[in-house]
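Milestone M4 deliverable, item 7.
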Amino acid sequence: MLDKTNTKPDEVDAIVFATSTPDHPLPSTASIVAEQNHIKNAFCFDMAAACSGFIFGLEVCNGLIKTERYKKVILATGEKMSAIINYEDRNTCPLFGDAAAAVMIEPDEENVGIIDAILRTDGVGYKPLQVKAGGSKYPVTHETVDKKEHTLHQNGKVVFKYAVSNMTDVSLKIMERNNLTKDDVDWLVPHQANMRIIDAVIQRTGIPREKVMINIEKFGNTSAVTIPLCLWEWESKLRKGDNIILTAFGAGFTWGAVYMKWGYEGNKTKKI
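Output delivered:
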């Protein structure tokens, strides 16, 4: 990504790393990424917003840019879901995948980029979707390992109910707030967790399926990486000024939607 954007390591001002599966409790994975890429002038930190990590991270990075103190901010996300899956739980283990992505956030005066965001959290999701052990409240012990409490557990029916209602509501709200009709939206990029959830968002927003990025059948649920993975796969089709709605839902519960205008001609980019 540094090569693709013609960025030197010493030009990077900050790295935000969104993940639910950091390499270590400390140091941050962001600091490891900085070291491996010879980035020495940036401040770096991790953030945990589960499957909503990328869209939450966009708002954080956008805020850093708006201070005018930072010119180049990397938003990276990586998820090794295979490390926290119980492979005896057939309700969850087939759903998830591993992936990583990185984007560069920079200031722009052409009215492209991140236009608006609506982000939400409701702690009612504390128990229905969690990895119970491994933190300071439930340190890993022989007992927690035996009970597989260091792996992901979810109440699928509860998660589905909240995901459908919240993702659809926030997608409609951000469209209404920015006077966008279904015809104005060039692309909808939903979190790739469940095809039924995606179908519900499509139905409620009225955005045609051909304008919806879907690759869950190839990569599964890669948590915070699903949205940038879609953007990378569809990049060659994107045009400067395209109206794009990103929406996600994750543990916490966390959810939200981001309205952005694509900043460059995707067909002219070089993929690494």
